[in-house]
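Progress report, Aim 2. The chain analyzed during this reporting quarter is listed below.
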Amino acid sequence: MLLRQPKKIIPLVFILLLLPIAGIYIERRASAVTCAVLPTDKGTASSTFTVTTAGAYRLWAHVYTPTNNNAFELSFDNSCSPMSVGGGPVAAGAFNWTGNAAGTTNPVSVNLASGSHVITIAGQAPNVGVDRVLLVSDGACTPTGDGTNCAQAAVTVNGQSPSPSPSVGVKLPWANPSRATPSVTKMAAYAGAGAVLAAVLCMVFLNIKRRRQPLATVYGGNLEPGRGGWRKSLLVTLVLVIVGGLVGAAVALADSGIVVIDLASAKVSGEAHLVASAGALNGYMVQFGAGAGAAPSAAKTPVPATPTPKPSKSTSVSGGGTTGGSTASASPTPAVSTCTNPSWSTSDATGTDPIGSDDVWWIDNDAWNGSHGPQTLYVCSPSSWYAVSNQTDHGGAVETYPSSEYDIAGRGNATKTIAQYNSINSTFAESFPAAGSWDAAYDLWLNNWSTEIMIWNEWTGTQLYWPDDKSVTVTLGGVPYWFQDLGGEYIFYRQNMVKSGSVDILAAFNYLVSKGYVKSTDVPTQLEYGVEVCSTSGTETFPLTGLTFTLN
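Predicted structure tokens for the chain:
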């Protein structure tokens, strides 16, 4: 009857068409309301990578576990379905590969389209560190060591850098000499499938060739001596089976890609920090904090905002500096001086104190890593102080950086560019102990803390790993240094370590300009000198006995 009443059919069709649209709208509204998000209390880190071949990938992460819980969460492309990884009991104080959903033995996998993607990782267990993520198309491959067992050759990835630039994933396809090596199980499965397919096709072909005679006739009808037909048939089948197996193995190789996501240059926020670690595959790891309410773990990158001033201390330091063309001495006590009567001290992890009233000199305890131990800083002047520190080795990670900080024109007020300086020089002196693991270094910042440059004068312990590449030599003020671009952080290592001396800082800036790493219009913002403490042999004392900066 309805077919005879089109006026009734049209509204019905219209309603039926609207139903799926309404369903999609309701589903999207529901998903918008219930979209899960990553936790942020322990910090997050994100990195951009590229996938050249779409498909399903098995995820593995190289994780540092300070206790016995390596749980963290991650998502791809800001998905509403974050994944929890790790969480099982593991050896404390070590790196390990983990790739299972938290608290289970279920592997973590993800389907990714070709193109650019963003991975975001959030801390779950306190102080967990992650330095590398692998996405492997061969689900049976379990990485060991540095993960190169899943690739035929060493994988070239981003350098070891705590710079805020995004990292690039490296896809290793079939045509690449660093292609992934599939597991024996996968190779056998693909080869077997190829062989079976070849055998079936061969038999079908022979059956057609024999004018649709039964296969028994094909192989059994020519058994008379001298005829040889059955031998030819079996030989053809055997050859095709072998070829099919080889083709299957080749397909297994072609299908065994790997994407390497190096977190040494991830963007971090909140309680997540990029820390140097000798145990990390790339020299640095993202380490997540202890969470809200825990001891602070401020990033090494200084906060431009000026802290609440403390009462002025009596000190022998005078001076400040100008941003004009005249020479400005940024420290009045260039001579070696041992601090014996400190005017200020702090045991606070983020303890800092301004020297003078011009907002130029600051002294920082800077126990910035969430896993740091106790440290007290005793200050006589910006060029004379000592830190008493007791730090446990956490995979070679830097725990503290007690330092003197010189803010050009005051915090956040610098405007003079590299090209406008005639000279930026410094002298230094320290008597740091022989034991432990540490480096005595300048930490220099451009453009309001957006570009970091370090100059190392002396280092020991696990820090002796650096530099891992001595191929580039640079001379600064007549002194030879090794230079490394660690993916956005630039480090000069003095080839002959010294406890006192001078450094031509402007020469370092000009070298970076000449190589295109920075621009001549970049603005030097902050100059620091101190000691990056990774670990100590019990409680140790680190005395700074001299420091000057001279800018012209």
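The mean pLDDT is 74. The two ends are 97 Å apart (CA to CA). These observations will guide the mutagenesis work planned for the next reporting period.
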